[in-house]
Design goal:
- It contains 12 helices and 10 strands.
- By secondary structure, it is α/β, with parallel strands linked by helices.
- The strands form 2 sheets. Strands 4-3-1-2-9-10 form a 6-stranded parallel sheet, sandwiched between helices.
- Helix 10 (189-195) links the parallel strand 7 and strand 8 (200-203).
- Helix 9 packs across helix 10.
Length: 262
């Protein structure tokens, strides 16, 4: 039965585990299959054509698990490869940009977006926000160093505070709503908040989980088991620090890991 099938989630690496964390909190009974392209991370510095190719390959790998829905947790893949994957996928495919943009469009005043170089260069958030609020003033800033800081676990460190302040100072003072346009950034929310007090932060993973819940309610169906749904973790490469970093992003033990060849 379709409702019993898993939700597939993929990311360029392990940052998408923050999206899995949000899904596990909101939809604890759902079975999840997570695919992380750790052999080719990061996507954020690669060309449009390469990101599209990787996105299609990852989608094809997830299809082997017969998902009822695929979530593209990677903001960069959502910006560049989502439409191509949606065109060939036999199941619905949801990116993280549309839910984040919709949430941002409901705010008053200008909106800030922080993300990788590729996500910011794509202008995908700007286009998506303006579909909901034409004429919205949007300021985007690429913050490439934040990914490394999140993976190092420097989540409460003066160096991270300084880097966050340096990036966020590029946003005009009147920006009070900022989209976290990278799956790594929620890990650094404490530093980001210290660097820019009084800001409303839109976590693209949290709003994507809410969008998934609406899709299940509106036709895809919920898994009926009352027990917590299983989580299957599949990676394209396993580094020595992967478990340590992955558990920080997921907020729980990773359990067993599987490797897959591209």
């Amino acid at each position: 039965m379709r409702p019993q099938r898993p939700i597939g989630v993929f990311d360029s690496g392990i940052g998408g585990l923050t999206v899995v964390h949000a899904l596990r909190r909101l939809l604890p009974s759902e079975a999840l299959v997570y695919l992380g392209d750790t052999a080719r991370v990061p996507y954020g510095t690669k060309s449009h054509d390469t990101i599209v190719r990787y996105t299609l390959q990852m989608g094809a790998l997830l299809q082997q698990h017969d998902p009822k829905l695929i979530v593209v947790a990677c903001n960069t893949a959502s910006a560049h490869g989502l439409a191509a994957l949606q065109a060939v996928s036999p199941c619905p495919v949801l990116g993280v940009i549309a839910p984040g943009a919709e949430a941002a469009s409901q705010s008053n005043g200008p909106v800030g977006v922080i993300g990788t170089l590729a996500t910011v260069a794509s202008a995908a958030y700007e286009e998506a926000i303006r579909r909901h609020r034409p004429g919205a003033v949007i300021h985007s800033v690429a913050c490439p160093l934040l990914v490394s800081l999140a993976e190092e676990g420097w989540v409460d460190d003066p160096i991270t505070d300084a880097v966050c302040r340096r990036y966020l100072n590029e946003l005009p003072f009147e920006v009070k709503t900022v989209v976290l346009g990278c799956t790594h950034y929620p890990i650094l929310k404490a530093s980001l908040s210290r660097a820019r007090p009084g800001t409303t932060w839109i976590d693209s993973g949290e709003v994507a989980a809410e969008a998934v819940e609406r899709l299940l309610r509106n036709g895809l169906g919920f898994r009926t088991e009352s027990a917590p749904g299983p989580l299957r973790l599949i990676l394209t490469d396993a580094s020595s620090r992967l478990r340590e970093v992955g558990e920080r992003f997921l907020g729980e033990s990773l359990g067993s890991l599987e490797l897959v060849d591209l």
